Structure formats: structure tokens, C-alpha cells
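Worked example 2:
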Amino acid sequence: MKEKNKIVDVDRAWEALHVRLQNDGLMNIRKPRLTRKRRYMQFAALFGGIVVVCGAIFLSWDSEEVFELSFASENAGENMTLVSTLADGSTVYLTDGGTLTYPGSFEKNKREVSMTGDALFEVVSNPRRPFIIETPNVVIEVTGTVFNVRSFPSREAFELYVQEGTVEVVCKANEARMAVQAGEMVRLQAGEWQKGTASGVDLYALYTAKMRFKDEFLSVMLPILNRIGDRPIVLRDPEIGERKMTVAFSDNDSEVMAELICAALNLRQTIKQDTIYIFKP
């Protein structure tokens, strides 16, 4: 049985990691390497046409709807994350104060989003369609991986840690490029990359202690809950997965999460051989 995730102060955890890397001499400054100029301002051209309709924000993006997801927690300092699944199946865990801009459907040859704030990305692998994240100071490109990004324009700060796979980051100011492997982290300081290695960093523990879903299909939520829970939750009737929920979880105990789901959707649960089954009454 898995140990329950503890509630972690993300800022404190990152600062402790950074101090440890510096003390161990692992934060090595790498000189920027210039590359071909890229179209970094593709997203910036869109920001001027924002129209607010019924609380949702839509942008013009090649005749497709573009959504802006902003998360402001009701209680400051509660470390809640808003979990959203994109059109390609990738999952984003957005923390308080963060903003994510994404299309209703991705282009055939690439997947582009933009963000500010602090978020964990779990990107579905697709080498033919790279996943590109636009931040105020950096462009990030991956094909499939798990990593987190902290980008705050007011502080001109950028940090990234990779848990799985490889991530490529490019500084907009001077086009300095760097590849970041699993177990590595980078910071952008005065246009130069500082890179170090770290072990024992569990991003899921940082971002899943308290989660909120908004109007999400149960079938989409369950794989996320099963990843962090202490036992699997299974739907006996696939039709149940088509139901939507707006719910917050503050305990990664699978039985507690299943009870919340059943109470909200008028369902029942039973436990057999360490598996929780949810079914219609």
C-alpha cells in the first residue's frame, strides 16, 4: 500500500532544493548557445483580442476556439491545484494564481499552449507533434514527459525540473538553448542557464496533495486519481465515466475519494481484493 502524499509547501520545497544544489556545487552556469531565430511572439499577437463571455475567455486562433484557464484559490496558502486534461490527453496541474491558454483542438503537426505561474505538465508522447509551451521569458518544447514549470513575469523568474523524459528550453532574449534530462533542473538568471541535478524529487507529491477538478468527466479523472491513490478505483459500468464532476480532493486515500464520487453522483461502491468498484445503485 502506498504512503499517503503529505501536503508540501511548493515554494519552500523548491528553495530547499536550490540551496542544496548550490551547496553541493551542482548549479553550474552554462553559457548561452545562439540558434536560429524562432517565432517566439506567436502567442503574444493573440493577447490583444481577448473577449470575456459568461466568465470564459476566448481568443482567435486559426478560426479555432482558444481558452484561457485561470485559477485563483479561495483560501490563500492552501496549495490547491486545478487539474485539467487537454485535447491530446495531456494533463496540467495548475497552482493558485496560474494561467494556462490552450486551443480546443491542436494542430496536426504541433501542440501549443502558453502559461504563467506554477504548473506540473504530464505530456502524452507524440514525437510527430511536439508539445510547445510559451512562457514570458522561455519557450519549452517536448514530445512526451513529466516536468514542472515556474514562470512569473513580475519577478522575471523561470525554473523547470524534469521528472521523466527530456525537455528543451530556449531563452527568448538571446536564444540560448539547453536540453534538460530526467532528474535535472534549470533556472534562468540574467539570460544564462543554471543547471543542476537532483534526486528524490516527487513532483506528484508537490502537486496532488490537494486537487480540484471543474466540469471534468469521471473517466478522465480516474486515471489521475489511480496514479496517486493507494488502491485502484474501477467503474463497473463504462457509462458512469460520461458523468461530469466539479470536486476537490484533499486526501489521496482512494476509499475517501471514491466515497466523495459516489456521494456526488448517487453511486455505490464495494471493495474486493484491494480494488474499489463503483457502480449504479
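The domain at 10-197 is CATH 2.60.120.1440 (Jelly Rolls). The radius of gyration is 20 Å.
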